[in-house]
Write a structure and sequence with these properties.
alpha/beta, Aldehyde Dehydrogenase, Chain A, domain 1, seven-stranded mixed β-sheet, 14 helices, 21% strand, globular, disordered N terminus, Aldehyde_DH_dom, Ald_DH_CS_GLU
């Protein structure tokens, strides 16, 4: 793994990779600083427009061959990728933790997600099913089949620097697509590491150059992908603002989008909840990844009869949190990604105070020898109102908003009363409440859970949300259909030509 983990302050070449070869013509670099200690990890060369065009053309040509490889064979290559990630799980997990700032356990868990989605994709490679249909015409047969799209552009965010790429890439690869990955400019090293890990697999299987590609850079590089008619599908993870721009640009050229955008997730705690189960789930959901998950628990809607008990338990639990170097397994919470994120945290704290909120657990920026990067903040809890502007907004930081309810209908209305619709949960032992929450009159989110938190989705289910979350679905279930095109086929095996709807056309 020494060849993958960069040396401090070394320049990593290049910013452009196809898995088998590396290209770069730029002299511009992205400086990757660790939020853990503020140290410069490496400088990564960015992709020029010429680099980008070369990668896209290489990928487009590779697709001509890759789409003809039998899907089970493509699955076998993905299986081998999964084995490589098993070998490098510990080292890659540490790199994720150090470059992004999440706890080591979360970094290892993210690599495990890559392994799991590889396993899922292997099975999927033999299950890309279509349907058969009965024709209204005699001696005719109808069916549908699914074909690969072409070049899939993947724009990933810093908070899950490798897992979300794999959700897209491994499914797209078994579907017969080729992938061009534009990682976050805040976490380029983990992306380069992933490309290096799968490089041997690609070479050993004589995979066409360009099947798995990487381009590095900032907003302009992402815009090249979204505007490029050679890119059949753009899968983008990020803010709602970013998603609006991507969606409009891709739609203008009649391309396809898969958008995974912001979340403003709530947990309802019923008077019928088992609080011994609920409290750990709330705390992990609110402070995991330092509040930088799209599925982070941001709002807590508590029945008035258990409100004070829940508040006291949470204050006690927050008092036991250990904040510090995420590579030390005894710490629960690491840093925010950078000082810009700290500024966002402080702005949200000020907005809560101006709105009249009261902090149950006080906020603050941590200082001292253990926090030299300036990116460590205290997870905090504020009593708030759901209709406040700051509560309606997603702040990527560990701030939990606490509010009361009286009836289950009121709780569900509060849960749904935000622009985003990603993940939601209810803690209750009341069957009627649970079923109402999961019904058409319940949560309006893409993910609705009972007696588990809002974060920690498994790869077997389709991941994504509604409303301003974008409506996309990745990972499990039938999310694979987003990476393929449907084709309806009708075969006439008779000796006459009957027309549909009984139309007569005699000549």
């Amino acid at each position: 793994m020494d060849s993958i983990l960069p040396l401090p302050a070394q320049a990593v070449k290049p910013g452009t990779s196809t898995g088998q070869q590396f290209w770069h013509t730029s002299d511009k670099t992205i400086d990757s600083y660790s939020p853990v200690d503020g140290k410069l990890m490496a400088r990564v060369y960015t992709s020029t427009r010429a680099d980008y065009d070369r990668v896209i053309e290489t990928a487009r040509q590779a697709f001509e061959q890759w789409r003809l490889v039998p899907a089970p064979r493509r699955g076998e290559i993905v299986r081998q990728m999964g084995e490589q990630f098993r070998l490098y799980k510990t080292d890659l997990g540490k790199l994720v933790s150090y470059e992004m700032g999440k706890s080591l356990q979360e970094g290892l868990g993210e690599v495990q997600e890559i392994i799991d989605i590889c396993d899922f994709a292997v099975g999927l490679s033999r299950q890309l099913y279509g349907l058969t249909m009965h024709s209204e015409r005699p001696a005719h047969r109808m069916y549908e089949q699914w074909h690969p799209l072409g070049v899939v552009g993947i724009i990933s965010a810093f908070n899950f620097p490798v897992a979300v790429w794999s959700w897209n890439a491994m499914i797209a690869l078994v579907c017969g697509d080729v992938c061009v990955w534009k990682p976050s400019e805040k976490t380029p090293l983990t992306a380069l590491a992933c490309q290096q890990i799968i490089g041997d697999v690609l070479r050993n299987n004589d995979v066409p150059e360009g099947v798995s590609c990487l381009v590095t850079g900032g907003r302009d590089t992402g815009e090249w992908l979204t505007r490029d008619p050679r890119v059949a599908l753009v899968s983008a993870t990020g803010s709602t603002r970013m998603g609006r721009a991507v969606g409009a640009t891709v739609a203008e050229r009649m391309g396809r989008c898969l958008l995974e955008l912001g979340g403003n997730n709530a947990i309802i705690v019923s008077q019928h909840a088992d609080l011994n189960v609920a409290i750990p789930a709330i705390v992990f959901g609110a402070v995991g990844t330092a509040g930088q998950r799209c599925t982070t628990t941001r709002r807590l809607i508590v029945h008035e009869t258990v409100y004070e008990d829940v508040k006291a338990r949470l204050a006690k639990a927050y008092g036991q949190l250990r904040i510090g170097n995420p590579l030390e397994e005894t710490n629960h919470v690491g840093p925010l990604i950078d000082k810009g994120a700290v500024e966002g945290y402080l702005a949200a704290v000020e907005a809560v105070q101006q709105a009249g909120g009261r902090f149950v657990v006080e906020p603050g920026v941590l200082e001292g020898e253990a926090y030299t990067s300036g990116c460590y903040v205290r997870p905090c809890i504020a009593e708030a109102q759901n209709n406040w502007a700051i509560v309606q907004h997603e702040t990527f930081a560990p701030i939990l908003y606490l509010m009361k309810y009286q009836t289950i209908d009121e709780a569900i209305a509060l849960q749904n009363g935000v622009p985003q619709g990603l993940s939601s949960s209810i803690f209750t032992l009341n069957l009627r409440e649970a079923e109402q929450f999961l019904s058409a009159a319940g949560s309006d989110c893409g993910i609705a859970n009972v007696n588990i938190g809002t974060s920690g989705a498994e790869i077997g289910g389709a991941f994504g949300g509604e409303k301003e979350t974008g409506g996309g679905r990745e990972s499990g279930s039938d999310a694979w259909k987003a990476y393929m095109r449907r084709q309806t086929n009708t075969i006439n095996y008779g000796t006459t030509l009957p027309l549909a709807q009984g139309i007569k056309f005699d000549i």
